[in-house]
Amino acid sequence: MRFLALVFFVFAAAAVARLAFAGYLYRLDSPATVARAMDTVHSAEYALRLAELDPDHAPAALRRAIVWNPQSSGARIALGLDEERSGDLAAAARDLLAAADVDRQYLPAWTLANFYFRRGDRDRFHQWARRSAELIPGDFQPLLALCDRVDPGSATSWLPADKKFDRAYLDLLIAGQRWNDARRIALRLNDPKDFGRLAAFTTLLLDAREHSIALELRSILLPQSPSLANGDFHAAPTNQAFDWRVPSIAGIDARWIPGRLTLFFSGREPETCAILAQPLALDAGVYTLRFDYSGPPGLRWTIDATETAGLQPAPAWTHAQRRFSVARGGVQWLRLIYRRDPGTTRADGSFELSNVALEKGNTS
Amino acid sequence: MRIETVQAAVAAAMAFNLVAWAAPPAIGTVIANGAFRLDNAAVTGNATLFEGSSVETASAVSRLELATGARLSLAASSKGKIFGDHMLLEKGIGQLDRAENFRVEARGLSIQPETEKSSARVALSGGTRVQVAALVGSFRVLNSRGVLIADIAAGRAIEFEPQAASTPSKLMGCLVMHGVHYLLTDETTNVVVELGGPGLDKEKGNRVEITGAMDPTATPVSDASQFIRVSAVKRISKGCGSAGAAAAAGAGGAAGKAAGGAAGGAAGAGGGAISATTVAIIGGVAAAAAVGGLAAAGKLPGQGGSGTISRE
């Protein structure tokens, strides 16, 4: 019994020493030492490392890794890619599919989607792209970018119906300034929790003067809304889409409270500047702009290039209205302009604005 | 080109370019032991490369295999834009292997292999410098105007720093006569230039340092890459034999250390800006033999350790 224990101990010690030696060789991390470590303990992990360190002998090392650990999808993927590179496409497909068999996670599916993309095999590409989409752990954009190369503008059509893909795809299309493709996706995102994304898109469209698409999105963001949005300042200006823009101007501070916007003039502001603006969706016709205000002189409303009469200085709340006509329908910018009047100093004090409303027709 | 090279290129072309649909053709694959960014999106494992794809590594090396047969690596924390015939290195360190007709561009310099099996490492350091280490085979380095500014032999490393356009050329080497032409092979850059100007005749056969300006209107003799109108000649030593050889060996030796040393150290090892008093200036670029630094041979940063690709 004692002899058997001694024999067992010797064998165990030898095995531990062998493992430790192999580990030591592996950590030296050169092709020669890792190859020795691999041969010593027949480790798939070591074989994978050897394949990285010595690309010329990678296929042999990877095949051994697969023998030693048939569940190693990493080795099968690496071998498949290597076979693809060397032109052995049948073997590449076989090994990549085997990787997907032993590993039902994302990477083998993604690798196969890429492989069949490169092969130009649309059906199998769609099959594995869809599978990737079901398993994708993080960023959807690489998958969507690949799908978009196959089906430009319709990348999500083969993916599982899920708005998370539409959202990511919209971002991708916007980044590429593909406005019309983005429009089709955006119109599908008719959901309040996507309104932030749609508003940001609308802002970009307005900046790019893509007014027709911007107006389509307005109907989603502001259904039933009059031509002028947030005129009663019930919400803080967002500087987005068809809401108020309150530009940051040196010498002028803005403060919003529900129902009112206040602009503080320091007396050091520029002599001329637009202090407030909003894009309006207008048809051709005559409009009346009504508002309540108080504040210093030098302010006036403009609609695109048309300037209305200046506002009278008003130490207390005053109701006023301005009429203007629009010759052609579409997006027109309403702006509140400050311009120092000749013979006066720059404005110093606060300007308050509330209850801004726009009515079509020459009402009084 | 050898038969196996042709076969490899054909296989690679078959592997990557048989896309039967209207999609733009893939130019290769990128493979990493972990995550990287492809066109600003996070990817794990591998992906397909297209013309102009941007690859940015995180903590692991990314290996790029192109349809042309070129093999590239991007070290950890590096970034490059990949094209079918070149990579634009934007950050960190890149390595080029087996790429006869492939070049790396970095900060206006173009690094081109001279032979099929050449291998080189290119590192950006500081705000303006580029370090090139030829690991296998030799490499030519051209400035943004396509002028040859260095011919780097295997085992050597040179650090480059673009200078102001008006900076005169400054080269050191043995002044020799070739027919009726004065030639000088710069000891740092190994570039042969033809010289013209006063004071050269009496320094023939000596090791000299010359200052001058490239004359783009003059056609140099076939051995030379450019013609330099010399404004000043300074003798370093009489004759060329031992002193020149020693200097050349010194530069080569220093670079040899770089090529043989372990990777590591901070980017831009070698301290401050390249000093105009200690290096060659050619084609508006200062060049100095590099010792150590991230362009040195050994593993690329991020290449160590075992992979995470395995699903075992």
Task: Name the descriptors.
heterodimer; A: 364 residues; alpha+beta; five-stranded antiparallel sheet; four-stranded antiparallel sheet; elongated; B: 312 residues; mainly beta; 17-stranded mixed sheet; five-stranded mixed beta barrel; 2 helices
Chain-wise SSE layout:
The complex is a heterodimer of chains A (364) and B (312).
Chain A: H1 2-28, H2 31-41, H3 44-53, H4 58-68, H5 73-85, H6 89-102, H7 106-119, H8 122-135, H9 141-150, H10 163-175, H11 179-188, H12 195-207, H13 211-221, E1 252-257, E2 260-266, E3 272-282, E4 285-295, E5 299-303, E6 306-307, E7 314-326, E8 330-339, E9 348-360
Antiparallel strand pairs in A: 1-2, 2-9, 3-8, 4-7, 4-9, 5-6, 5-8
Helix pairs in contact in A: 1-2, 2-3, 3-4, 4-5, 5-6, 6-7, 7-8, 10-11, 11-13, 12-13
Chain B: H1 3-17, E1 28-38, E2 41-49, E3 53-57, E4 62-66, E5 71-74, E6 79-82, E7 86-91, E8 93-97, E9 103-106, E10 109-113, E11 119-125, E12 129-136, E13 139-142, E14 148-152, E15 157-162, E16 169-178, E17 181-185, E18 192-196, E19 207-214, E20 226-237, H2 241-260, E21 280-282, E22 285-289
Parallel strand pairs in B: 7-9, 18-20
Antiparallel strand pairs in B: 1-2, 1-3, 1-4, 3-6, 4-5, 5-8, 6-7, 8-11, 9-10, 10-13, 11-12, 12-15, 13-14, 15-22, 16-17, 16-19, 17-18, 19-20, 21-22
